[in-house]
Amino acid sequence: MQDNGDDPHKQRARKCHNRKEYDLISRRLWQSRVEIYSGQNPCRLLLVQGRLRKETYTPMPETMIALRKTKRARGAELQEIPIPEIKPNEVLIKVQASSLCGTDVHIYEWDGWAQSRVKNIPYTVGHETTGIVVKKGSMVSRVEDGAVVSVETHIPCMHCKQCMTGQMHICHNLKILGVDTDGAFAEYLAVPEIVLWKNDTSIPPEYLSIQEPLGNAVHATLIEPVHGKSVAILGDGPIGLFSVGVARASGATQIFLTGIEPFRLNIGKQMGADRIINVAKEDAVQIIKDATGGIGADVVIEMSGVASAMQNGIAMLRRGGRYCFFGIFKENLVPTPLNDIIFNGGRFYGINGRLMMDTWFTVSNLLSSGRLDVRPVVTHKMPLANFEEAFEMMIESPKKVGKIVFFPDAAAMTNGNHP
User: Fold this and answer.
1) Is 103 a catalytic residue?
2) Active-site choice (106, 154, 169, 380)
3) Looking at the domain 63-210+377-412, which fold is it?
4) Which of 8, 99, 284, 405 has the fewest CB atoms within 10 Å of its CB?
């Protein structure tokens, strides 16, 4: 374009911008978007159908606050680190909310599982999250800037046999967000497009952030239908509590929840359990067999990661029933009644993650429809800066907490009533 003083576009630019801005517009006028900085008032110029439109613009900061695992020992610490750069197939997400998981607690405590699993330190922890896309790579086509997304935490390679046969969630080269890669307890997060889930924006961030663990509960509970069946859920942690709600919404006729924490067992009652069993005081196997005419539960879902619970679960399963292993044990070698498993003749599943992205559709539909109310489980919302208090609440017993959701921006904590 010639530098013609009579050019109407330049006349518009002269009216509201300084010389530096004028020269930049001259050089790049025919681009669809021009980003400029005007003194202390950053703004962005958009060229739309030959007309310039000015809008305020907040430039991206260079650093962020993140919760980091910095030592191979108990604990974690907040650090200021550079905002991650994205690859062509990735997006940058401004995190709205991230929920605290049992896996995060394993890593924080640095137990046997964490010591054998976590390889790269230092790194940012956390994986259950939701936020807003603020930047996307050149190869990203499924989402735009401003999209509200959650993140599938199983990052597949997309070229192994599992990925090519519909089993991305157990990819041979699988990486786990917040375990193998920098995670979500931060102000910003970079992830590949393949793991994005576009959210129903009518749902508040604290509930959007828990779709990943809720997906665990959906996958474990509904890997086979439960309608008309008796279901025993072992473990009163948040995913066990979600599982109660999923079983109730999906037509289970008898739902048993076992655990040792009265506060959480009471939440289980709110979520729809017909019978809560405190295994510190009661015999779960006998109670469930008595309630099922002596044959045992049709479905047993082990979500505690406790050896005695796993063993009792096999004892309370009816012959030919269905058993799901989900809870992570602190040690890999746990005494297991293998002969009982063999002679049971049932179906035994190991549950790892969620089906991509089939489980996410089910989760979204359950939340959006109102058929599943997860509010009783999400008991605390806290600023990320209060992470030490949150971890100790998750570790201490007796527990007075269900699910804790972190907000990097404390001022953004909501009081949403949905779902």
Assistant:
1) yes
2) 106
3) Quinone Oxidoreductase; Chain A, domain 1 (3.90.180)
4) 8
